[in-house]
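Incident log, structure service

09:12 report received: a user says their structure output differs between two submissions of the same chain.
09:20 pulled the input from the user's history:
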Amino acid sequence: MNTFWNKKISIKYVVLLKLLLISIFAIVLYFVIPAESVKKITGVIASKIKGKKVEIVDSPGLKKLKLAIDSIVNADEIIAGSFAFSLVTADSNIVLAEYNSGHSLVPASVQKIVTTGVALARLGNNFHFTTTLQYDGKIDPATHTLNGNIYIRGGGDPSLGSDEFEGTKIDNLMETWIKAIRKMGIDSITGSIIGDAELFEQDPIPAGWAWEDVESWYGIGACGLNFHENTYDISITCTKNSAICKVTPAIADLNLHNQICINPSLTKNYMYVLGAPYMNERVLLGEVNSDYEEKSAIPDPADACASTLKNYLRQNGIGVRDSGSTTVRKLKLLGKYVKAERKSFHTTYSPPLASLVYYTNNVSQNFYAECILKALSVNSCGYGSTSGGVNAVINYWKEKKLDLRGFYMTDGSGVSRYNGITAKQLTDMLVVYTKDASMFNTFYNSLPVAGESGTIRKLAKETAAQGNLRAKSGFMSRVRSYTGYVRSKKGKLLAFSMMANNHSWDPIGIRNKMEKLMVLMAELE
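09:34 re-ran on a clean worker, output below:
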């Protein structure tokens, strides 16, 4: 009996001892053993969360992804350039894969996710740009005459007179404005129609834009009073011996010297326009072998807007004196500007910022991105400048405790090669956006969808990434980049960024390399 009792006691003590040893081992593993030792023991990838190291299993899918990354970084085409990659969990920012993620690279149009995301967070989804009609002087009720001027006070609205939104087209806009003027009892104006673009800085072109960008259809700057997306359409009709040029809408005082050549052996038409902002003398250069259409920058958008309203008023029976349109800028240059008391009588609102951001990111609209950046400046300091917008963005990310080493912002659109950002900063930003319930869905839905929409509609068709991965793309010579979100097979939202600078692949070659990474990310368990 004593032997049996002693045996039972021994088993009890052994069990307790084992439990004690297991507890001690767990405590040591959690608090004492260095992270590198944990990594060696478990054979997994370490990633920081809550100040500790957690382990993410290096799955077969991740191994395939890393092999695909290795095939890029070890390729001859990138040997003199740079490649960076970052893939993290969107909810907790756990690193799943990375390469050179702390190296600052030129992002191209991926820059727009910085501008549009911060704008949605700061200004809100329902923010509207405003344009205000004002007058000075007095209205004579007997003769229905305004003895004074009508002002178009710009609020930086990029959609004013645009063909892209319902109700913003020139005809609709002018009809609304004419009704507002008639409602004031005005049939005749003794003064002028004056465009006021003073809310934004005078120079519409951000520092760092190359001259070739300013000459091209995509290099359109932001003004305080924008009009028709600050562009006019150029239509080229080819005859046997010449290329006939037509401009729509008509731009007052524009002298476009057509030097387009017809080249029957040409494989692709091209044209560009020489001329700086506010210069009405422009030279149209290029070669064509068939009818062709392109866009170019309006020299003075505020003047074009004022001139258009003057013409529509006259066409609708409202008299305006012969020299009936100008701008505040022009009057100041001539020393003729007199600051008078103005009365506001009508306000035009842009579509909500949510719609503008969708358009900006989906088609990669540089001009809208620059207007949105300057709106951030107005919001922070009351005046719209590129530098003010950049400061607003930097201050936002400082509040979010983002490490900004290597972050260089010159514009809002990514046209400038002076921009610099790291892949880690991009995914860090995407993670921050996911935590802002007020704007995340709007921002997420603004990103093009792989295989379906926007600038990545041709990518990853009939793969796990189609209809799943959402990303902003960026492209310029020797630069290709993508950043956005993708869901794993189990529905886990991941944030990613990839950038290549100074590579020697052709555009299709580097696109295909990155497309493979997109598919592999979507196939992760």
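09:41 both user submissions now match this output. Likely a transient worker issue. Closing.
09:42 reviewer note: The two ends are 59 Å apart (CA to CA). Residues 87 and 97 are 5 Å apart (CA to CA).
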